[in-house]
Amino acid sequence: MRIAPVLWICTGLFLVRVIGQVEVLLLEPEWLPPMSAFYSGLLPYPILLPLQIALLMLMSVLAARESPKSCSLAPRSATGTRIVRAVAFVYFAIMAARLAWCVHTYGRDFYLHGGLPVAFHWVLALFLFVWARARRTGGVTSSAAAP
Fold first, then answer.
1. Domain boundaries, position 19
2. pLDDT tens-digit profile of 81-118?
3. Tens of pLDDT along 12-42?
4. Which residue in 15, 18, 19, 69 has a CA-CA distance of 20 to 30 Å to 54?
5. Would you say residue 50 has pLDDT above 90?
6. Euclidean distance between CA atoms 4 and 14, whole angstroms
């Protein structure tokens, strides 16, 4: 099984979040939750948006490097891989705790108070975990993969 499709799906999901957030900011459509549901406020939005775009660019480069026709020359450090996987796991766990707090505090309206950012932070954590797995295995997760 190739890793690239999972990385591209994660990148696409994060892109949808960024586009949705911009749409809510500019157009305020009724069918999307309010800006406060998309945005935790930890960084001012004029700083957050360029960071999100840079992150999308980095995710795209990393996903492209894992595509079947790509020649990835990046070193596969076992220590670096373990660190990235550990960061992904801790990141996921922290977001799970954040979600539990949101559900406990806001009940059924948790998605309006941090639930959406948590979901997309999980997408980023999954991206990190899968990318680190590709670093460990050379981009292929099964020994029966085609050359």
1. 4-137
2. 888 888 889 999 998 998 999 899 988 888 788 788 88
3. 999 999 999 999 999 999 999 888 888 777 7
4. 69
5. yes
6. 15
Residue 92 lies in a domain: yes
AA letter at 45? Y
Tokens for 119, please give them.
Answer: 């979901």
Number of domains in the chain: 1
Q: Is residue 70 part of a domain?
A: yes
CA atoms within 13 A on the CB side of 115: 14
User: Which pair of tokens denotes residue 111?
Assistant: 């998605």
Start-end of H helices in 43-114: 45-65, 78-106
User: Rounded CA gap, 95 and 63, in Å?
Assistant: 23
